[in-house]
């Protein structure tokens, strides 16, 4: 019994050390490295989008209908993003590039959504400065 516990503990520690290794995205070469870097980029883009979404809700915090509409739109967008990028994954299902293609799709759509949140809720029709800086759009 004690030997089993030792083996499980050793595997757990080994996995933890392996799981926390950093990937140098500038020199990522393998599928796992590229996907790890794309996942990291996606997380950064999602965090930025959440920041813009929170700012939009804050701007309209006294207007319940607007907040509900923003949340409904965000939920619909999430469903669209997942369905669309899942279709990209299926197109590339026969190759190891499928993950990168799907992640790239999610990154691009997240950037576009962040810009849409900015232009819809965080700018003003006059010369009043926007509540947050204009987020970047994907190059392609």
From TrEMBL:
KW Signal (keyword) present: yes
Leader peptide range in chain numbering: 1-19
Pfam families, alphabetized: LprI
Cross-referenced InterPro entries: LprI-like_N
UniProt domain Lysozyme inhibitor LprI-like N-terminal: residue ranges: 27-117
Keywords in alphabetical order: Signal
Domain of life the protein comes from: Bacteria
Protein name (record): Lysozyme inhibitor LprI-like N-terminal domain-containing protein
Native species: Methylophaga aminisulfidivorans MP
């Amino acid at each position: 019994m004690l030997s089993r516990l030792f083996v499980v503990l050793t595997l757990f520690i080994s996995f933890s050390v392996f799981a926390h290794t950093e990937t140098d995205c500038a020199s990522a070469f393998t599928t796992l490295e590229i996907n790890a870097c794309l996942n990291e980029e996606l997380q950064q883009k999602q965090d930025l989008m959440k920041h813009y979404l929170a700012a939009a809700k804050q701007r309209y915090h006294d207007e319940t209908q607007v907040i509900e509409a923003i949340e409904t739109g965000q939920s619909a967008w999430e469903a669209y993003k997942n369905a669309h990028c899942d279709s990209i994954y299926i197109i590339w299902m026969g190759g190891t590039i499928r993950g990168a293609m799907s992640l790239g799709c999610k990154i691009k759509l997240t950037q576009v959504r962040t810009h849409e949140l900015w232009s819809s809720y965080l700018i003003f029709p006059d010369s009043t400065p926007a509540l947050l800086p204009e987020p970047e759009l994907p190059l392609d």
